[in-house]
Amino acid sequence: MITVDFDRFPVGPGNHLLDLGCGGGRHAFEALRRGANVVAFDHDATELATVDSMFAAMRAEGEVSDTTEARTVSGDALDMPFPDGSFDRVIVSEVFEHIPHDTAAIAELYRVLRPGGVAAVTVPSWLPERLCWALSEDYHTSPGGHVRIYTRAELEAKLKAQGFRIGPHHHAHALHTPYWWIKCAVGPDNEEHPLARGYHQLLVWDILSAPRLTRVTERLLNPLVGKSLVVYVRKPPTATGGTEGRHGDA
């Protein structure tokens, strides 16, 4: 399930892309298929082992060019082990809502992105997220849960304060929103409830089949109840100072 719109966020051969907080690696895999050199970064070593295996499988199946590079790196989003300006593309999908010190993470994003580089940042949309919080205490108080609900204005203000130039935005995954409302209503860990299980099966079918009816319906609903907000930003070409220089130029 891809959240970033690669038509608005062009990625291709020659790009060095960081998937910050990659999780299962969905965006890293797509970027690699498009010819980018990819670093999948996350704090969860178990997730990264799975991503590494998928990188190897993609290469074995001839899905990617022999000239592309893909690797996984484990670490802390507040102190990444990369030199300043290491990447010309960065994806941060559904990460900042988990981090108490999100402005520090945004500063690290700014530091590792090269001047003139672009980033795609996604967070849960305000309205769907607000209802999830209202329906379930466990949804946002469990370890590793969400610590804040962003409005677009707040997210863009924090990115702009760091020095980013704000670009276009959109919403995604409207058809997934009812699933999370159901999950929160019946219990986030209740995988066997008939409503939750049935709707999940519908989503799997939709992802695999992509029928025109549901694709059109989702596009129409995304601005209203899209589960994710996506904001595209650029680091100014002449960016200097700020948090850059902390890790040197190794």
Word description of this protein:
The chain is of the alpha/beta class and 250 residues long. The chain has one domain: Vaccinia Virus protein VP39 (Rossmann fold, 3-Layer(aba) Sandwich). It contains 9 helices and 7 strands. A 7-stranded mixed sheet has the order 3-2-1-4-5-7-6, sandwiched between helices. β4, α3 and β5 form a beta-alpha-beta unit. α4 runs parallel beside α7 (177-186) and α7 (177-186) runs antiparallel to α8. The chain is globular. 35% of the residues are buried. Residues 241-250 have low confidence and may be disordered. It is an enzyme of class 2 (transferase). It holds the Pfam family Methyltransf_11. One of its GO terms (molecular function) is methyltransferase activity.
